[in-house]
Amino acid sequence: MNRVAIVTGAGKRVGRVLAEGLLHDGWQVVAHVRDKADAVPERAIPVVADLADPVAAATILAACPQPPSLLVNNAARFAADSFADFSAEELGRHMAVNVAAPALLTSAFAAAGGAGDRLVVNILDAKLVAPNPDYLSYTLSKAALAALTTLSAQALAEQGIRVNGIAPALMLLSPGQTEANFQAMHRFNPLRHGVEPEDVLWTLRFLVDSPAITGETLTLDAGQRFWRLPRDVQFLQTDSE
Questions:
Q1: Where are the transmembrane segments (predicted)?
Q2: How far apart are CA 97 and CA 56, in angstroms?
Q3: Model-level pTM?
Q4: Is residue 32 within 8 Å of 7, Cβ to Cβ?
Q5: Sequence-separated (6 or more) residues with CB below 8 Å from residue 27
Q6: What is the chain's alpha carbon radius of gyration, rounded to the nearest angstrom?
Q7: CA 27 to CA 11: how far, in whole Å?
Q8: What is the distance between the alpha carbons of residues 165 and 148, in angstroms, rounded to a whole number?
Q9: Integer Cα distance of 127 and 50 in angstroms
Q10: Which of 91, 96, 158, 187 has the smallest CB count inside 10 Å?
């Protein structure tokens, strides 16, 4: 039987690209979505769960036809806030989806057992290596997820489970971002290379095929971190806008 992979947020955007790529590679994919109306890639096994609900991890693992070998924690809450309008409630909503859910899923993944190389990949954000205070709660939650990546890699290594992160820069139009800004900022980096969802897929494939790598985060930003931008890219302008 083919290996089983779980991908959260697999109905759209980067998650869908990852799910489709894994299906192409011969994996059985358990494709998590939040809403029943969200379509999943053909041949994927759909599972509906609200990651803010602590029982979501059990629901997702129960959909697996056999113990999974790969868990991709991709789904995330991404809502704008700042120090000016910061609230404990918004931070809590981000932490529930972006940190607690991956932690619970990783724990359930480890408890499910299974033979051979097993891998957890957390999708982070390139802004963590050159941070700015925009999207404050989101950024704090991704920083916590980065810490979880390291801690779970340490905790699970003796079980033969590897845990790594992929931290991409801007890939797709973000909520609230104008098309003009996206076009200007997508390649706003030293390499003038716009990071694409397919870059994340190829990095995931690399980690799957690299059994000696654990506790690492691979940053996909075409060198943008070297510029230490003071704001999130959608709040910047260039001469081309």
A1: none
A2: 10
A3: 0.95
A4: yes
A5: 2, 3, 4, 5, 70
A6: 17
A7: 17
A8: 10
A9: 26
A10: 158
43: nearest Cα among 67, 68, 65: 65
Q: Is 124 left (phi over 0), alpha (psi -120 to 50) or beta?
A: beta
Identify which of 47, 50, 68 has the alpha carbon closest to the alpha carbon of residue 110.
68
Within 13 Å of residue 65, how many CA atoms lie on the same side as its CB?
A: 13
Write a three-state SS string for 196-239. CHHHHHHHHHHHHCCCCCCCCEEEECCCHHHHCCCCCHHHCCCC
> For tokens 């200007």, what's the residue?
184
Which amino acid belongs to residue 236? L
Q: What is the pLDDT along the chain (241 residues), one digit of tens a residue?
A: 689 999 999 999 999 999 999 999 999 999 999 999 999 999 999 999 999 999 999 999 999 999 999 999 999 999 999 999 999 999 999 999 999 999 999 999 999 998 899 999 999 999 999 999 999 999 999 999 999 999 999 999 999 999 999 999 999 998 888 999 999 999 999 999 999 999 999 999 999 999 999 999 999 999 999 999 999 988 886 544 4
Element at 18 (helix H, strand E): helix 13-24
Using CA atoms, how far apart are residues 72 and 22, in angstroms rounded to an integer? Answer: 11
Nearest Cα neighbor of 159 from 102, 206, 106 is 106
Distance CA 119, CA 237 (A): 39
